[in-house]
Amino acid sequence: MSKITENKVKLTGDIELKEKVVTINRVVKTTKGGRTFSFSALVVVGNEKGIVGQGLGKAKEVQEAIAKGIDDAKKNLVKVPVMHGTIPHEQWSKAGAAKVLIKPAAHGAGVIAGGSMRAVLESAGVTDVLAKSLGSANPHNVVKATIKALTELREPVQVAKNRNLKLTKVFNG
Predict the structure, then answer these.
(1) What integer is the mean pLDDT of 10-32?
(2) CA distance 39 to 138
(3) In the beta sheet, which residues pair with residue 53?
(4) Model-level pTM?
């Protein structure tokens, strides 16, 4: 069983985060007086240099829901190991019924991923990756599974340290 390390990032200084709205839903609450409409917004933020986070905001207005989602995403930032525009190794992950697979790709391949996965990977700063979303297409769970997969990635330096090997030995086998 692999040990998952907590790698939350504290927002300090002037890190410039770019936000992407993944999905906006109109939700309805039925009350005694009729229906009450509000909006929920799923937002992904990242600095495109290895930091990414996701958040959910709900409000009566779309812009307010997006603003709340951005604030929530800033509280849930994680660090992702990005090497030369790609990820260090292949990784599976699951959240709810959504399963995702991310694989490193050669330079110039681009981000080959679907809607919500693409937003997360681009916000994290990954430029070359092969990604597949399996199971549920629910954007909330796909985003959570993608971020979980990115946080479970291990850097080669850490792998070499854990195995008491030199870094060149990790790559050459």
Answers:
(1) 85
(2) 17
(3) 45, 77
(4) 0.86
